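Key result, reporting period 2: structure in, sequence out.
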């Protein structure tokens, strides 16, 4: 029953988020709240039925939810000395609750699943801040899936490739979803390659990362230019970052009328496909075990 509820919530949220991601590249923040809250409630029910003392794990899990979805400034500003006592207290209480559970319930499978949900979420935060995961919505989706699926779901005989223990703990469900979504995204260079070869655009490696487009058209599309103007000099930027400011006027002033661009990929849609793949088939790596 838990897996059925989690799967329905996950599919509906990702479908809705993917629709907005494809159309506008903007996802309403409220979408992720039902996902995370459902995951925490289901974990709490499991804990109450198994070992009520493990309800204490709801503290760090809720801390992860709040960290992911509640907007905040700097928790500790070393320059001004200002401190957001609310978030600082949340971090301290969550850490203490996690340590207590680790000391007394480290051998409990339910604790291990909750602990991995916390740790993998922290990894996603790190990947986002280091610009490995580009979109905030992408990171939120993965964190919420971590809370919703501390275990691999089993629904009507699926997945085909089941996750053996303890591999399922080392490669949690959300990480398998990220793996499959990234694998699907990695096929796009093949598409770009053949498309550009057919059009006679043969500049390497741009031909594997995007396509040529007039600046006038690019301004209207959801794309990043693979060049930018720095100190009045045009420089290649093969992997544009969200922190890079796009100035189409600066490119025009540099004498360019057409540029190589790379699309702003709706990665949440890739996460949806990866989610469905792992839900039905499982992680292909598990076929080895």
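The corresponding designed sequence is given below.
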């Amino acid at each position: 029953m838990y897996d059925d509820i989690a799967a329905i919530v996950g599919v509906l949220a990702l479908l809705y988020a993917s629709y907005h991601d494809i159309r506008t590249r903007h996802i309403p923040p409220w979408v992720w709240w039902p996902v995370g809250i459902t995951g925490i409630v289901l974990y709490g029910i499991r804990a109450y039925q198994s070992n009520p003392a493990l309800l204490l794990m709801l503290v760090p899990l809720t801390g992860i939810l709040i960290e992911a979805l509640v907007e905040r400034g700097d928790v500790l500003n070393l320059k001004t000395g200002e401190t957001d006592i609310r978030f600082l207290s949340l971090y301290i209480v969550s850490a203490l609750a996690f340590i207590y559970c680790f000391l007394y319930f480290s051998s409990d499978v339910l604790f291990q699943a909750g602990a991995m949900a916390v740790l993998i979420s922290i990894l996603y935060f790190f990947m986002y801040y280091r610009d490995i995961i580009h979109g905030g919505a992408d990171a939120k989706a993965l964190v919420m899936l971590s809370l919703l699926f501390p275990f691999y779901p089993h629904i009507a005989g699926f997945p085909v490739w089941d996750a053996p223990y303890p591999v399922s703990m080392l490669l949690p469900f959300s990480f398998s979803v990220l793996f499959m979504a990234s694998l699907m995204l990695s096929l796009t260079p093949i598409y770009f390659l053949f498309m550009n070869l057919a059009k006679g655009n043969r500049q390497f490696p741009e031909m594997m990362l995007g396509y040529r487009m007039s600046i006038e058209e690019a301004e209207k599309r959801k794309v990043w230019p693979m060049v930018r103007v720095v100190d009045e000099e045009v420089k290649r930027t093969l992997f544009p970052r969200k922190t890079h400011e796009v100035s189409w006027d600066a490119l025009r002033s540099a004498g360019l009328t057409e540029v190589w661009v790379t699309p702003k990929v709706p990665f949440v849609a890739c996460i949806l496909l990866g989610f469905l793949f792992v839900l039905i088939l499982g992680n292909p790596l598990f076929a080895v075990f």
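The mean pLDDT is 90. The radius of gyration is 22 Å. This case is discussed further under Risks and Mitigation.
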